[in-house]
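ok so I'm stuck.
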Amino acid sequence: MAKAPSRPPKPKVRIPKNRVPKRGGGAAKSSFGVGLITAAGTLGVFVAAALIGLWVVYWGPGPSAREGDATIVTLPSGAGVSAIAANLKSAGVIRSTDLFRAAVSLSGADRKIRAGEYEVPSGASLATVVGLLVDGKAVRHYVTLPEGWSSAQAVDILMKQPVLTGEVEVPPEGSLWPDTYEVSRGETRAAVVARMQRAATSKLATLWAQRSPNTIVATPEEAMVLASIVEKETGLASERPQVAAVFTNRLRLGMRLESDPTIVYGVTKGRPLGRGIRASELRAQTPWNTYLIDGLPPTPIANPGEEALKAVLNPPRSEYVFFVADGTGGHVFARTYPEHLLNVARWREIERRKAGLPPGQTASVPGATATPMGEGEAAAAPVIIPPGAKVISVPAAAPQ
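replied:
not stuck anymore, here's the structure
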């Protein structure tokens, strides 16, 4: 009986040793993964907590002001981040210098901080403080010297500015340039005066170079003197050229200027008189009384502005040699003395009505009495004047 064929033996498959899994390997990998996940979760918690803390510190309320509703902090020009941080910490507007340095460094604000004086609100967040410094929202202080104010009044203005320091002497009249000046906390008053004087020197030199051949003044100093008188005679910018022309004509004709503000300056040295001019003051021998002196006074009587100087250095051609107030804040001009008398009469009538006086009674009008050289001894001396020319105006006598 034939035997059934036997099945061939199965071939053996050899597995490389490096592919044979080790016992227990899967469990180790699983434990390591769990550990990583756990560590990552823990780290995430810490990071989240840190971020929340930084958010609170950066955006949350800052320190309260030690006094009032805000703190004034001054950052000097050229100060570094560390110095700024120390300054802010010392002033009590931030809690930590390290956090401030980190905040400005990470945000790039360390290259944008501007010097100046800052008013930090009480409780301002670190973000608010950094924003103030980057935006340059500094507190700015100014002083203004109006045109026609005296040097004594300029010192009064500076002394009333509390951010300035130190005393200052009254500078020479006419040496200051009327303008608005920005000042810094702690700046000395003497330094501000020096700035005003430099501006006056520069501006006068520029205007002098642009003078017309028609000007009567021979030097920049004379220009400043005559411009100060023009400035004090009228408060209307449109009238300055005409007033300058009148004074130019009078000087060219050899007439005295006879300007009321020069009398006042001789009495007050640049302070407001606060009343009418007295007859005794009209006759007073002072270096500035242009009713008694020929030509220009020795110094300016105020600090004139640019337009007054331009009017003196470039006077329009004119035949006017008189002017008197017109009752509206300006003046009316005349070529001859009879014209001037009519203008004075109109002015007296306006003043009479304002005073509520009956017709025929004259109101006391300082600066409008058409009487040559005033009264008393001043009127006794004969005055030789060109035909058709007399005085501009003579103050009425006020009670002594």
